[in-house]
Automatic annotation (TrEMBL):
It comes from the Bacteria. This is DNA-binding transcriptional MerR regulator. SMART domains: HTH_MERR (SM00422). PANTHER family: HTH-TYPE TRANSCRIPTIONAL REGULATOR ADHR, REDOX-CYCLING DRUG-SENSING TRANSCRIPTIONAL ACTIVATOR SOXR. The keyword DNA-binding applies.
Length: 212
C-alpha cells in the first residue's frame, strides 16, 4: 500500500507518518521510485502500536523509541524488556533523595513481603510521589499504600497472564507494551468510574447531565 492508504487505514495523517519515519519509529517502506514507497501490513500494525503509545499512553517520542528498541531486540529477555518498557512509561522520579519517603517505601515493601529494588523506576517513582504528597501537606497519603498493594497484586497477575498467553516471544513483548500502556489507561478510567459510583452512593448525589 502507498502512504496515503496507510494513512487512511491507520487514521494517522500523512505528515505524522513521515515524522515517525524520520524519527525511526516506523521502518522505511520498499522504494518503488525515488519519491515513492510501498508499505505492508507490518507497517500498519507498527503504526497503530505507535499511535496507541503516543496518543493514548501519552509517551514521548524518546520513550516510544526505547519501547520499540526493547521489542525489536532479539536478545532481550522478558524481564529486561519489562523493565525497559515500564521505565519508559514511568512518571518522573521527583524527590528521590527524600530519606523520609525512602523509609516509607521500604516499610511498605516489608509489610507486603515484596523485594526492595531501590534502583528500579517504580521504587524511585513511589518515593517521589510520597515526597511530593508530604510537601503539599498530605502526610497521611501513605495510609493508602497498603490498600494499593492489596489491589495491585491481582492486577499484576492478570497482566502477566495476558502476556504469557502469547504464543511467541514477540507477541509476549508486545503484550507487555499493550498491557502497560493501555492497561494503565484502562485502569485509570475504571478507577474513576468506581470512585464516581461510590461517591454517588455515599453522598446520595446524582450525576450532573453530561454534554453530548
Amino acid at each position: 500500500m502507498r502512504i496515503a492508504e496507510l494513512s487512511r487505514r491507520s487514521g494517522v495523517p500523512v505528515p505524522t507518518i513521515k515524522f515517525y519515519l524520520r524519527e525511526g519509529l516506523l521502518p522505511a517502506g520498499q522504494l518503488t521510485s525515488p519519491n515513492q514507497a510501498r508499505y505492508s501490513d507490518a507497517h500498519l500494525h507498527r503504526l497503530r502500536l505507535v499511535r496507541a503509545m503516543v496518543e493514548l499512553g501519552g509517551l514521548s517520542i524518546a520513550a516510544v523509541r526505547e519501547v520499540l528498541g526493547a521489542l525489536d531486540d532479539p536478545a532481550k529477555s522478558m524481564q529486561k524488556a519489562l523493565g525497559t518498557i515500564s521505565a519508559a512509561v514511568a512518571p518522573p522520579d521527583l524527590g528521590t533523595e527524600d530519606e523520609v519517603a525512602h523509609q516509607q517505601v521500604e516499610e511498605f515493601l516489608a509489610r507486603q513481603g515484596w523485594v526492595s529494588r531501590p534502583a528500579s523506576y517504580a521504587h524511585k517513582a513511589l518515593v517521589g510521589v510520597l515526597a511530593t504528597a508530604r510537601e503539599v501537606g498530605h502526610e497521611r497519603f501513605t495510609d493508602l499504600l497498603d490498600g494499593f498493594g492489596r489491589a495491585a497484586m491481582p492486577l499484576a497477575e492478570a497482566d502477566m497472564e495476558y502476556v504469557l498467553a502469547a504464543k511467541t516471544k514477540d507477541g509476549a513483548l508486545e503484550g507487555v507494551v499493550v498491557g502497560t500502556v493501555l492497561g494503565d489507561a484502562a485502569m485509570a478510567a475504571v478507577r474513576a468510574m468506581a470512585r464516581r459510583e461510590l461517591s454517588g452512593r455515599l453522598t446520595g448525589e446524582e450525576d450532573e447531565p453530561q454534554p453530548c
